[in-house]
Design a protein that fits this description.
There is one protein chain. The protein has 273 residues and is of the alpha/beta class. It has one domain (8-196, 223-253): 3-Layer(aba) Sandwich (Rossmann fold), CATH 3.40.50. It has helices spanning 17-28, 40-52, 67-81, 105-126, 153-173, 191-197, 203-215, 224-235, 266-270, and strands at 8-12, 32-37, 56-61, 86-89, 135-140, 178-185, 246-249. Strands 3-2-1-4-5-6-7 form a seven-stranded parallel β-sheet, sandwiched between helices. It starts with 7 loop residues before the first strand and ends with a helix. The structure holds nicotinamide-adenine-dinucleotide. The site of nicotinamide-adenine-dinucleotide has 30 residues, from helix 1, helix 4 and helix 6.
Length: 273
């Protein structure tokens, strides 16, 4: 038996990266996947690739930061499916903004609006469709929600808040059969990373990836499918007594206090993939 048989699953940010990988994985496990994103063209590619493998998926143009857009989407889902079992709040964006006193207010507002407010809005309007039969909500946080990055205070604030919002939601719905957890990825090869640090082909992007590999105990960057697997675990009955938890999938980055000996042991830098 497939792990998400007969389940209706919503995935936001399903056009590319982690959301796309999760949509494909959830569909393989038998779910009807409702894919929401602002990028309609790429979203249709996700849905078509699922349909080619006989999976069930549908595309919805939704801006998670816009209350009306989310509300209209929730109304449509209610009309078409009645109930929902799984919500993966994955849509997000990231950008460097400089030190806090120079950080553009519009950028701060945008990151909070998409990453944090989007998670809140989508949960607020979809939870009523889960109350009858229970369900599982997975919020995509980040290792940047438990510690911080240079020049990225808006992202750090949004992702830190998502981890605690997850706990608040877990408590609110613990008696209603709705589990709420977050996944905190480390660096994963997706368009978001290329946008933030430069693509693999660019010198700056290549430098970023090399540095990220050596500070990662596992010596490599992660793949979207490795986060999709964690989301699948949290979505399925395999995690039936897990709620209010944050699961980090970062190749071990957050396991050390500081790089220590690694800073001057050349071998450490060379032994990467
Ligand atoms: N890639 C990483 O290294 C990494 C690390 C930690 C956390 N994350 C988180 O993973 C999630 C997915 O990111 P990704 O790395 O797959 O990047 P991505 O850019 O490939 O995917 C993000 C998706 O979100 C969509 N999106 C952006 N704003 C939206 C909005 N307002 N409404 C609806 N959809 C919107 C984008 O169109 C895109 O398809 C994000 O929340 C990100 O913060 C990524």
């Amino acid at each position: 038996m497939k792990r998400l048989e007969n389940k209706v699953a919503i995935i936001t940010g399903a056009a590319t990266g982690i959301g796309k990988a999760a949509a494909e994985r959830f569909a393989e496990e038998g779910a009807a996947v409702l894919c929401a994103d602002i990028k309609l063209e790429e979203l249709n590619e996700t849905v078509n690739s699922i349909a080619e493998k006989n999976g069930r998926a549908k595309a919805y143009e939704v801006d998670v930061s816009n209350e009306n857009s989310v509300k209209n989407f929730a109304d449509k889902v209610k009309e078409e499916y009645g109930t929902v079992s799984i919500l993966f709040n994955n849509a997000g964006t990231d950008q460097e903004g400089g030190k806090l006193h120079e950080y553009p207010v519009e950028l701060f507002d945008r990151l909070i609006s998409v990453d944090l407010r989007g998670t809140f809005l989508m949960s607020k309007y979809i939870i009523p469709l889960m109350l009858e039969n229970g369900g599982s909500i997975i919020n995509n946080a980040s290792m940047s929600g438990s510690a911080a990055d240079l020049d990225r205070s808006g992202y750090n604030a949004a992702k830190g808040a998502i981890i605690n919002l997850t706990k608040a939601m877990a408590i609110d719905y613990g008696r209603s059969g709705i589990r709420v957890n977050s996944v905190s990825p480390g660096t994963i090869e997706t368009p978001l990373v290329s946008h933030l640090a430069g693509s693999k082909e660019e010198e700056q992007g290549e430098k970023f990836r090399e540095a990220q590999k050596w500070v990662t105990p596992m010596g490599r960057i992660g793949n979207p499918s490795e986060i999709a697997s964690v989301a699948l675990f949290l979505a399925s009955a395999d995690s039936s007594f897990v709620t209010g938890e944050d699961i980090r999938a970062d190749g071990g980055v957050m396991a050390y206090t500081w790089p220590g000996k690694m800073l001057f042991e050349e071998g450490w830098k060379e032994e990467t993939e």
